[in-house]
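INFO worker-7 received task bundle
INFO bundle size: 2
INFO processing item 0
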Amino acid sequence: MEARSEKKDGVVLLHVSGRLDAFGARQMDRWAKDALADDDKDLVIEMSGSDYLSSGGIRSFNGLKKEMKRRGGRFALAGVGEYPKKVLDMAGFSTVFDIFPDTAAAVADIVKKRKNPTLFNEIFYKKIIDEGLQLTIEPGWKTRPPVLRVLGDLDKVIHARITEADVRTKKFSEVTYSLGLGALGSGMKDAMPLMGEMITLYGSMVWLPTDGNNTPDFLTPLDAGSDVPVYTGYNITLDGPFNEYFTLDTTNPNGVSISDIYRVIFSAAGSRVKGYTGVVALTIWGVIESIASSGLKKAPVAAAAPPGGESIMSPGRIHEWIASDTGNTHRGDTLISFGIGIDLATGATHFSPATLSSLYYANPLNTGAAKQMYLHNHGVVFRNVPYDASLDLNTQVKKVVTDGEFVDMRHLLDSTRLRKAKIGIAYIQDIVRDA
């Protein structure tokens, strides 16, 4: 068996050649899974190179048809030869699958009958358009002003001066969206040496233990009020609702960078958002074009501090303390992220330098628009999660975290790029230091 895939008008075409028996069907299943990104909805199997089909192949077709239905799209066959067509007729599946003479006919029919679930948004909601990027705006909640709650001292993290006296515990039920430094463990002494970058998403905690294995871990308790604590040396928590929701689309085949998303939000907020302070919190559910990331290699505890009070971000120390990956990873997978953005031109007029510096640090691995803004984002990668921008963001975050195939967790660099996304935006009105 051999296969190749391509995409035309948003339809994934999988060209297979060889015998579609039980063994070949298993190969086809793997190839189809590899070819489908989380935002793909339509799949056509092109069979002109396959002259044999058995029940094993039919069973695989049926499974793929169910998968594309789950994604809200269609499954079809094209170029079916004489013998495979006889097998489909005999098994009673000729009327179950959509069958077309070639891929051109299949794609044309799929595109013609394709539904646009975001049509209402396109017609009735305002848009922000900027250099191939479009944000469609949906209203959120204004029940109370969003606030950021900061626990711990970021400077102690950057200089590796965390001690047991700096560590606090939080219950899963106490946080919806947050990021910071944390660990899970049987007790303080167990957690301290493993503290790494963390994110909490609707009762789930995902973190990157600094145990040398470079493998993230997570816990999603059924009882969010349980007594299993999160140990944290530094944490930023969103307290309040999202004021707006944006649906991101782009005509750029390479996607849109996180820094460009924040830049457009900042640029538009100055003229259209009453009470804009220059600080926002974002939760993103999107489809990845590429991820650029970093992560702590060692727990920034006082026992491991660099000599002379040197920062772990200094040029002579950063590669000892920070692992980075700027390659093209996780393309087509799902990203759930939470982060903070500071528009330096506006934020400095509303908050003191000390308050703003409690939210961010200048990461030398970020080579983007550091002079205009500071960004601090953590993200979790999942796979096999259908993307549908018409769905509610918070509901989908909970569903993805609970049901999605967990892949990775990282500190996101500003050059991370997305194909499309649903974004919740909280325009922060105050920054509170918690004891």
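INFO item 0 finished
INFO processing item 1
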Amino acid sequence: MTSPPVTEERDGMLRVSAAIDATAAPGRLPERLWFEVDASLAPAVRERADAFAAVLHLPALALGRPLELLGPVSPALLDGIGRRVEVFRGWSPRALRPIEVRAAERRPAGPAGDGVMSSFSGGVDSFHTIWSHRPRASAPTIERVTDAVFLHGFDIPLDRRAAYERAACVYEEVLAPLGVRLIRMRTNARELRGVARWGLLHGAVLAAAPLLLGGLASRFLVPSTDNGRGRPWGTHPELDRWLGTEALEVTLDGVERNRADKVADIAEWPAALEHLRVCLRRSRSAANCCRCEKCVRTMILLDLTGMLERSRAFPKRLRSRHVRRTRFERNFVEGTDVVRLLLRRACRARRFDLVRDLCWSLLRSRMSPSRRGGGGRRGGGGAVSWAEVSSVGGDRSNRGAIRRGATASGARRTGSR
């Protein structure tokens, strides 16, 4: 159960919050869920429970408890939440039981603004959504993004305010020439990870922004990720569209473009190359470490497009040993397209040095414990076999290139032991 949303202003920020009945999971739920925006946006803020319904239905589902909302909720959103619950249960039918979502008042959402809003994190997908919706002669009817929401607490922790503000100031300057306003928003929604997987919850947290700021936009774009195609994920074609209301349409944007296509597209935008932020490591500066799995695969894609040296977002050089040391196997075995895409693009570019290093990285996982929890030294740790890696190439020439690259590195012999 949640209390009715309460709005209060402090230090130039407007906070909208609702109390959560945490008795179902003591110590694993925050006492209140809250969102903060600049007080100047007060006219656009809707004192409704829509944003809280969007975020809290997955934790309620994970706990197997009904969700009661003491505030007005859109009937269209409530119906959509029911559809989302069906999708989640389809992914985990044994673990999740049906729940009831009840609202004290079912009230259609009022008129929305005429803008187009997008979530924004500074990553490849975010920059691509902004860039692909820019006004241009080749797409005269494109809907231009008017507002981009940069959510503090989403990936930059709330206690790293200085890092967030530095990034926000940079992104304001980058987006302004395209006529896009950056909206700063803060939330403690990540504290719900105690009961719900963030990988499944984060899409609803993103959609809470336009639900809260109902007076700004009638359409919300969620930049798609490759993860959303191959496996259960919080931003997914079967999930995002059900987070809309009578006045708001939510769309997963860019699903027709893979990660390599997106990198090639935003290569036309020098400011994006300079300020990409993809890092998985939560450093105090929020800068790219150039060594984590996500940094390395982004650097490889930039290298294959000839843009890595032009991107100041990755100040450290990408060397063969860094690719070999990167653990790609979890991405590989969970069905995502990223590693397969890297191998195919490297074959197409005749970058057999990268083919060799990627094969080495994948196959060496059979000699060491996997992130998925396997133990043992030989064959017990990784889930990637030589046959699986060899089949990635698709056509005969690519498969031959992968075999040659792996054989040259000795990875085939190592991985088949």
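INFO item 1 finished
INFO post-check item 1: DSSP finds 16 helices and ten strands in the chain.
INFO post-check item 1: The beta strands are 6-10, 13-19, 32-38, 67-73, 101-106, 115-120, 147-152, 181-187, 217-223, 249-253.
INFO worker-7 idle
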